[in-house]
Amino acid sequence: MLQNSEIAREAPSFWRYLWLEWLRPVSEAVLVALLVTTFLFTTVGVVGTSDLPNLKSGERLWVPKYQTWLHRFGWGSFQRGELVVVKPPLTSPYAVQPLPVLGPWGATFRPFFIKRIVGLPGDRLRMVAGQLYINGRAVQESHTVPYWQKLGQWDQTSALANSDTWPFRHGQAGDFVVPQGMYFVMGDNRSPGGSEDSRDFGPVPLSQIGGQASTVVWPPLQRDLYGHWQLNWGSLQIPPGLRGLP
């Protein structure tokens, strides 16, 4: 028979029990989740209207993070027309947001923006009265401009609709050449003030792109902009007008 002293030695302490039965499993689960969302894949939610008519607030998008890491190591690259999640420069007024619940006590975070790549490194960009030109060619943005034209809200007069007055250019005129290692991103919302993007804060470096938003995964069904129910799952394709440009 075991003596009382031997039983006492075999019984785990409260702290050891807490570590083995709760803290360690939770820590391991959090570590695995962190590794997966950092290096493999994650999902992001759409908040706001800066990508109407193609993305709606409340949708959730699939982001394969491994593609981003491959691109950063020189394997492949992001393509013109892809939707990506980016962290805007700190000069953006919306780059830092209050943390939900803890915001009143000063807790903040840097949210991702969801924007479309329109300019690759070395591209020459120009916008005149809302018409986008890439490398001297007028881009037919059938994925967005006709929608805003139909509503009578296509922005043609603001500073963002004319490249000579893009705020980040500080009075520079003519074509804007995207620097090497940088990408020029824009929202699909082309109404006045509809999207804060590179026209305002300038191009973003590869290191600030979190990944390509490749697929809508939620909700499975949703009403379209005209009130009709439709299947909402599906991959996010590159618009025809942004394919194959020189």
TrEMBL record:
The active site is at residues 50, 115. Residues 19-218 form the Peptidase S26 domain. InterPro entries: LexA/Signal_pep-like_sf (IPR036286), Pept_S26A_signal_pept_1 (IPR000223), Pept_S26A_signal_pept_1_Lys-AS (IPR019757), Peptidase_S26 (IPR019533). CDD domains: S26_SPase_I (cd06530). GO terms for molecular function: serine-type endopeptidase activity; signal peptidase activity. It catalyses: Cleavage of hydrophobic, N-terminal signal or leader sequences from secreted and periplasmic proteins. It is found in: Membrane. The keyword Chloroplast does not apply. Its EC number is 3.4.21.89. Its main location: membrane. The chain crosses the membrane at residues 29-50. It is a single-pass type II membrane protein. SUPFAM superfamilies: LexA/Signal peptidase (SSF51306). Keywords: Hydrolase, Membrane, Protease, Transmembrane, Transmembrane helix. GO terms for cellular component: membrane. GO terms for biological process: signal peptide processing. Belongs to the peptidase S26 family. PANTHER family: CHLOROPLAST PROCESSING PEPTIDASE (PTHR43390:SF1), SIGNAL PEPTIDASE I (PTHR43390). This is Signal peptidase I. It comes from Meiothermus granaticius NBRC 107808.
